[in-house]
Amino acid sequence: MIEGFMVERLNLSGNELVLYALLWKESNKGEKVVEGDYTAISQRMGITIPTMYNCIRKLQERGYVEQVEKGIYRVAQVA
Fold first, then answer.
1. Is the model's pLDDT at 31 over the cut of 80?
2. What percent of the chain has pLDDT over 70?
3. pTM of the model as a whole
4. Which of 12, 23, 49, 65 would suit a FRET pair with 76, their CA atoms being 20 to 30 Å apart?
């Protein structure tokens, strides 16, 4: 679910916004990090792997997501 602050504060495109919301939701289940590979996440979102890669890269550049190690991401809690 996309939260209001995500729309108002983050200035993300459609796929970036959906991806951040997905990762944010998963990270708020008591975990500080989210595990997932590009294939699984892209399939869940219904986008291609290159699109997934570009979205992750843009989220990382903006400081919203940090790659801890391959397939493991820490999501910035900017609410």
1. no
2. 92
3. 0.85
4. 49
